């Protein structure tokens, strides 16, 4: 339905800067108004705007680059992406920040990958919750009682279900502490 709708609604390609503005305004609202939970500002009234912003950012890129791709447009797209990522970093929503630098061009991809690696190292040293997540990722059983608890419970849920799960409504996703916001695969 959506591809047909987009083909029929020709005016959508003209809303380039509206898409960028929506993303920046929503991210700024989260930065200013959201409370910090688990080390990051993620949601307003139970909704994570970063999920919607991923779609508006794709629309922004598509409408910006629909006619031709030249250096000027790539620079404009990069500036808007940097603004998005900057606000996400200030909000400490680092998982969403990674998504904004994906490209098909190998040179840009390597540049984005290098920048992402540098950003990851900087984030590791700046933010305690990132260090905790890395520690839990490296050996969740070693930090089972603290930062590894969510991951270990998720692994138990997956292991208990086996290859085909336990059956509809037979699992126990409620044993995963933050199941409504994270670890969807484990919950299913």
Could you give a quick summary of the protein structure above?
With 188 residues, this protein is mostly helical. The protein has nine helices and two strands, in the order H-H-E-E-H-H-H-H-H-H-H.
Molecular structure report:
A two-stranded antiparallel sheet has the order 1-2. The mean pLDDT is 78. The chain has helices spanning 2-8, 16-33, 49-64, 71-90, 94-97, 106-126, 128-138, 149-161, 184-187; strands at residues 36-37, 40-41. The radius of gyration is 19 Å and the shape is globular. Helix 2 packs antiparallel against helix 3, helix 2 (16-33) runs parallel beside helix 4 (71-90) and helix 6 packs across helix 7. It has 188 residues and is mostly helical.
SSE map:
Layout: H1 2-8, H2 16-33, E1 36-37, E2 40-41, H3 49-64, H4 71-90, H5 94-97, H6 106-126, H7 128-138, H8 149-161, H9 184-187
Antiparallel strand pairs: 1-2
Helix pairs in contact: 2-3, 2-4, 6-7
Q: Counting H and I runs of at least 4 residues, what is the number of helices?
A: 9
Tally of strands: 2
Largest sheet: 2 strands, antiparallel
Strand content: under 5%
Runs with pLDDT <50, length 5+? none
Q: Looking at the structure, what is the overall shape?
A: globular
Distance between the termini: 26 Å
Q: What is the helix/strand order? A: HHEEHHHHHHH
Class by SSE composition: mainly alpha
Assign a percent range to the helix content: 55-70%
Strand order of the largest sheet: 1-2
Report the C-alpha radius of gyration, rounded: 19 Å
Average pLDDT metric: 78
Keywords:
single chain, 188 residues, globular
